[in-house]
Write a structure and sequence with these properties.
This protein is an alpha/beta fold and about 400 residues long. The protein is about 50% helix and about 10% strand. Helix 4 crosses helix 5, helix 8 runs antiparallel to helix 10 and helix 11 packs across helix 12. The structure holds zinc ion. The site of zinc ion has 7 residues, from helix 12.
C-alpha cells in the first residue's frame, strides 16, 4: 500500500511524522519565515516546546494562545487570530485539532499566507480538507479556505489525546459507510455523478480503519496511524470528487443540526465525530428499516438493496477477554411509529439533494439511541465539560 506521505504528496500536502530529524521538509519550507503558532489553553503545552525547538533551528517562532479551553470557530475568534497574524508572520502553524485547524485555514486563506498543523488528536477528518466549517450568527456554514501545506504528526502526542477524541475520529470514519451509500443512492435516483476513484480510495481507508479498530482501542501507534490515514484520505477523496460526498452525508447534517442546537442553548458542544457517530447510527438504522416498511415510495427498492451490506447499528458482542459492557436497562416500550421514519426528517434543498439532506431529526422517533449511548460513553468516558456534553445527547435522546 502507498505510504501516507507519498499519497499526500500527490495532493500537494507534506505529511511528516516526528523523528530525530524534527520534520525536515517542514523546516526547509519555513526557513527564513516568521512562524506564528496558534493554540488554545489545552494545546499550548505542545506549542511551547515546538516553538522552542524551531528557535533552536534558527527559525523565528512566536506563539499565540487563544484564551479559551474550547474555542469556537466563529467570526469573533477568527477576527482575533487574523488581527494577531496580519503583518506579523509569514506562516501560521495550528497546534490543535478540528477547531484550531479550521480557524487557521480560514484566516490564512484570507491573508494569503501558507499554513500547517501540528495535529494533537486523531479526532476528525478536516486536517486535509480545503474548506472550513464556521459558525456565523449561530448557523453552521462551510466557507472556502485552502488546504494546509504541512501536516505534522507525533504519535506520542496523538496517543495522549483524551479517549473521546480518538473515539470521535472513529465516528467520523464509520460515517463513511453511510455517506458513500447516500452518494450511490443519489446516483441511482438522481443521476448524480460518482467519482469511482474517490469512492474506492475512501472505501479502502474505511476498511483499513475498521480492521484496525482493536489496535485503535489499544491506543498503539499502528492503530492511530491507520485512523489518521483514513482521516486524511477523507480530505483527498473530497479533492478527487470535487465535493464533500465521499466524506459527508445525512449523518453530517444531523451533526450540524445538533451543533447549532447546543450553541443556541449555550451548552458546550460535543465533539464533531461524536455527533457524526450518532448520526451514523441513525442513518444505519433508517437504511436497515427501509425494506420492512409497508409503504411504497420512490427509491425504496434501491435504498433497501444498498442497505444489505451495511453494518448493523447495533453493537457487536464484545470479546469475552475484554471488560464486559456495563449493564444497561432496557428502555420502556415506545408506541409504534405512526408513519415511516423518513417522514420525521426534512430534506435540505430540492431534487438533487433530497436523498442526502436532513435538516432535523425528532429524536423521540429513535428510542433505541438511549441504550446505545451509555455504551459509547463507557467506551470513551468524558473527561471535561465538552466531552460530558455527549451525555446531554444521550439524555435528550431518551427524554424528548
Ligand atoms: Zn466529519
Amino acid at each position: 500500500m502507498e505510504t501516507l506521505s507519498d499519497l499526500s504528496k500527490k495532493f500537494g500536502i507534506n505529511v511528516e511524522y516526528a523523528s530525530v530529524a524534527f520534520y525536515p521538509v517542514f523546516r526547509a519550507g519555513v526557513a527564513g519565515c516568521r512562524v506564528l503558532l496558534v493554540s488554545d489553553e489545552n494545546t499550548c503545552r505542545y506549542a511551547a516546546p515546538f516553538a522552542e525547538k524551531l528557535r533552536g533551528y534558527g527559525i523565528a517562532a512566536e506563539e499565540f494562545v487563544l484564551p479559551a479551553r474550547e474555542p469556537v470557530a466563529d467570526e469573533a475568534t477568527c477576527a482575533t487570530v487574523e488581527a494577531r497574524a496580519k503583518g506579523a508572520c509569514d506562516y501560521v502553524l495550528a497546534v490543535g485539532a478540528g477547531t484550531i485547524n479550521d480557524i487557521v485555514k480560514y484566516v490564512t486563506f484570507r491573508l494569503g499566507l501558507p499554513c500547517g498543523v501540528l495535529a494533537t488528536a486523531a479526532s476528525m477528518d478536516g486536517y486535509a480538507s480545503g474548506v472550513t466549517p464556521l459558525i456565523r450568527k449561530g448557523v453552521k456554514v462551510t466557507e472556502n479556505a485552502h488546504t494546509v501545506r504541512d501536516i505534522l504528526l507525533d504519535t506520542e502526542i496523538l496517543r495522549t489525546a483524551p479517549p473521546p477524541m480518538t473515539g470521535a475520529g472513529v465516528g467520523d470514519i464509520l460515517a463513511k459507510y453511510c455517506c458513500l451509500t447516500d452518494w450511490k443512492l443519489a446516483s441511482l435516483l438522481k443521476g448524480e455523478a460518482v467519482d469511482a476513484d474517490a469512492m474506492a480510495l475512501m472505501r479502502g481507508a474505511l476498511e483499513g480503519c475498521v480492521a484496525a479498530l482493536p489496535a485503535i482501542r489499544a491506543g498503539g501507534s499502528a492503530g492511530l496511524g491507520e485512523l489518521m490515514r483514513a482521516l486524511l484520505v477523507s480530505g483527498y477523496a473530497m479533492v478527487l470528487a470535487g465535493n464533500s460526498r465521499p466524506a459527508s452525508g445525512a449523518e453530517h447534517h444531523m451533526s450540524h443540526f445538533l451543533e447549532m442546537d447546543f450553541l443556541r442553548r449555550g451548552k458546550p458542544v460535543p465533539l464533531h465525530g461524536i455527533k457524526v457517530g450518532l448520526g451514523t447510527l441513525v442513518s444505519l438504522h433508517l437504511y436497515k428499516r427501509i425494506a420492512a416498511l409497508q409503504e411504497e415510495f420512490a427509491g425504496k427498492a434501491q435504498a433497501a438493496a444498498l442497505a444489505v451490506p451495511l453494518p448493523s447499528p447495533e453493537f457487536p458482542p464484545r470479546n469475552p477477554r475484554e471488560a464486559p459492557w456495563p449493564v444497561v436497562p432496557r428502555p420502556p416500550k415506545q408506541p409504534k411509529h405512526p408513519k415511516h421514519p423518513m417522514e420525521s426528517m426534512e430534506s435540505v434543498g430540492e431534487a438533487g439533494n433530497r436523498a442526502r439532506g436532513v435538516r432535523w431529526v425528532r429524536w423521540s422517533r429513535f428510542p433505541w439511541i438511549a441504550p446505545i449511548a451509555p455504551r459509547l460513553s463507557a467506551e470513551f468516558p468524558p473527561r471535561n465539560p465538552q466531552e460530558a456534553a455527549w451525555e446531554e445527547v444521550r439524555e435528550r435522546s431518551s427524554r424528548v
